[in-house]
């Protein structure tokens, strides 16, 4: 059903030659991360050594995975490329659009009713273009990928930041925006700045209450939420080998919480066991043949300071369980010290909910360790003080855990078993126990705990811990409970202590599933009709953008953004997520979060044609309707934040011809280029100050648009006075071709047709 062993064998067949060449070019032994990167160059065999943290390099990923929220726009765009099939193996997973409320069956039924239009669309596009489709209820994207597709030494991209989870099986797996995924689906290279490398040496082995989750909670405390930015975190050492494969997945998963590009581990026996257990003995056999290439060189791990940009060492023998939070995953506190901290900060000590699962922690080992605690509560007659919710990561995990009596243990504690989906981890949680925005505390085994993340309530204090610690805390109902030292009073009035958790790494009787929820696409999908209702609120087929051309004259200033303007300011999330597949509807959020430099208000700009003030999308729509291009002006690092392609597509859709700023966040700049519009920077930063509210713009030499040649802009002020300034750009020849064709996808389509 799932993986493509021939593709994997192909990757392995060229690995030795490419890695050996990279070793020769760099003149040094290689880390695992470098081996994977150099063996996935778009050009094939390496011809030069790259500088980490500096060079932009084209790569050829082996796989793509998309979740249902991000896949909508990605697939709508892919449909524009005019390709009969995706160029690399791709899967779509329906996991984000399912709300947790009453339990799996009624929740899934409701999701299938409310989002059926989106699911049907994703299913039919997948069928048409050769994409594997995982239905709602099949599981969470990263757990399903780990169980079915991840393989040691591979490279994948996914339209979700926790794609990095696949590092648990020795991949370089990276979260990207939809536009990047579309490029690769359409057969183009994927560009990435060659990452820096952080080495984490693990010694000793986990014991007692400490789990793999505590490794990353500790790393998050050391690196903080930005400490991994632009870097791959590579784990090695005896301690790494002592971890289970799914434990490694948990650690890699939360690498996203320290901003890391991705995290990975070298191939070892735990991965081999996991591959065999998940019915992939042939992948394990193939990996065994190139084993030395699937881990870092011995010399690198013997002297890591020489080969990594930064090295951290953690002794697992001494590591203690942590709970991180509230409101940020890097606020790490060892269990036992939280009571005092909570009192100092006014965090509620009473715990209302314990939530177990998500893509981070729903392996067989996780569930058995947490169940071993839950069972003690039943056996020792302790009544759980908090509510329990469980989100299995996949149908395979759920079915197996059910067969083996694990779910029954939680049910005996009155736990609610939610759908195999993201649920409370992404705010899809309709909590009935709160009336308003009461201050309360929850503990969960997820990865993120930002304000409002789980239930939309800014006063929910969420703490992140291992599943077994979440179980213990939820049973006690108190944040200051330390199961290693404290006792609980049972129904007979006796003081009882919880024993250490016991887990089973892999199901002794093997994994099982009746219907995994996978739909194999047709071999030839040309006859499949993808229908989108013209009345749909949530989906809209895209029409190719018309080229803007070389005559931009009389363009009007739409907004001069003041200060920080991130992709969230440009295209807000929250309730707008609903319209991710409908470009016209979601464009109603365009730049509504940006502060206008004139008047310092948000979503309040002057319409120069009417003299009236209005919201940014409304004014833009009016200009567009009257055939007038508009221009957005911005400050430094414009478009920082995420790689969300909507932030570029919306201005393009509403008639913005150029975005002119002091500096860009690079991904957003590239996204603007891909949509066939101008992303330019002031040659002299101070020229930002020349821009007035009633300005009109004339591009004087756009007909000579060429690489490395600044453009000239005439600014006509309301009093008729003029300034002529220079604008820099970073367009190369192919990006200028995107501009000339109207978008990168238009160009791909044209090349396909010829
Ligand atoms: Fe879903 Fe939460 Fe993971 S939203 S993909 S379970 S981080």
UniProtKB/TrEMBL annotation:
Alphabetical keyword list: Iron, Iron-sulfur, Lyase, Metal-binding, Transit peptide, Tricarboxylic acid cycle
EC numbers, comma separated: 4.2.1.3
InterPro entries registered for this protein in UniProt: Acnase/IPM_dHydase_lsu_aba_1/3, Acoase/IPM_deHydtase_lsu_aba, Aconitase/3IPM_dehydase_swvl, Aconitase/IPM_isomerase, Aconitase_4Fe-4S_BS, Aconitase_4Fe-4S_dom, Aconitase_dom2, Aconitase_mito-like
Coiled coil regions in record: none
CC cofactor: [4Fe-4S] cluster
Stretches assigned to the Aconitase A/isopropylmalate dehydratase small subunit swivel domain: 557-684
Top class in the EC scheme: lyase
Catalytically driven reaction(s): citrate = D-threo-isocitrate
SUPFAM superfamilies: Aconitase iron-sulfur domain, LeuD/IlvD-like
Short name of any one Pfam family annotated for the protein: Aconitase_C
CDD domains per the UniProt record, alphabetical: AcnA_Mitochondrial
Single GO MF annotation: aconitate hydratase activity
Aconitase/3-isopropylmalate dehydratase large subunit alpha/beta/alpha domain mapped to chain residues: 34-477
Pathway: Carbohydrate metabolism; tricarboxylic acid cycle; isocitrate from oxaloacetate: step 2/2
Similarity-based family: Belongs to the aconitase/IPM isomerase family.
The protein's name: Aconitate hydratase A
Organism: Joostella atrarenae
